UniProtKB/TrEMBL annotation:
Belongs to the NDK family. It is an enzyme of class 2 (transferase). SMART domains: NDK. InterPro entries: NDK-like_dom (IPR034907), NDK-like_dom_sf (IPR036850), Nucleoside_diP_kinase (IPR001564), Nucleoside_diP_kinase_AS (IPR023005). Pfam families: NDK. ATP binds at residues 9, 57, 85, 91, 102, 112. This is Nucleoside diphosphate kinase. It catalyses: a ribonucleoside 5'-diphosphate + ATP = a ribonucleoside 5'-triphosphate + ADP; a 2'-deoxyribonucleoside 5'-diphosphate + ATP = a 2'-deoxyribonucleoside 5'-triphosphate + ADP. It is found in: Cytoplasm. PANTHER family: NUCLEOSIDE DIPHOSPHATE KINASE. HAMAP family: NDP_kinase.
């Protein structure tokens, strides 16, 4: 079964959107298998955004992500990487379709509320920054 990694960014927490966002995954039948509420360390932040090191938005992004607590989540479902990115919407909220999380609630690219892995390789890399394998919970969903 495929897994993906998601972070609810500090503005999602500060705006009281944790429940709203989790609801959208749960109501779609996606299983939450990892869940942590934390304040990211500089090391975690630099590892997460290592592919963006040197880009013009990097410093602003790191500062923003370390400015408040976040929710780190591992989700499990068939084709969950693509499914979650579909539910989340385009990176730039201006381009995010109505009905997506960013399309409904986000205004700017940096404060786009949520990060979701874009590939199997990145999902594995990103979840390993925040979760050990025994922190991923194995159970069956009821129907
Ligand atoms: P995220 O999914 O967390 O992955 C990288 C983040 O960089 C992205 O969401 C945005 O918050 C942020 N970002 C800021 N500016 C840009 C940009 N011009 N292009 C892409 N990502 C950007």
């Amino acid at each position: 079964m495929e897994r993906t990694f998601v972070i609810l960014k500090p503005n999602a927490v500060r705006r009281g959107l944790i429940g709203e966002i989790l609801k959208r995954f749960e109501q779609r039948g996606i299983k939450i298998v990892g869940l942590k509420f934390l304040w990211m360390t500089k090391e975690q932040c630099e590892k997460l955004y290592e592919p963006h090191l040197g880009k013009p938005f990097y410093n602003e992004l790191v500062e923003f992500m370390m400015g408040g607590p976040v929710v780190a989540i591992v989700l499990e479902a068939p084709r969950v990487i693509e499914m979650v990115r579909h539910i989340v919407g385009a990176t730039d909220p201006l381009k995010a379709e109505a009905g997506t999380i960013r399309g409904e609630f986000a205004l700017t690219v940096t404060k786009n509320l949520i990060h979701a892995s874009d590939s199997l390789e990145n999902a594995q890399r990103e979840m390993s920054i925040f979760f050990t394998e025994d922190e991923i919970i194995n159970y069956n969903l009821d129907i």
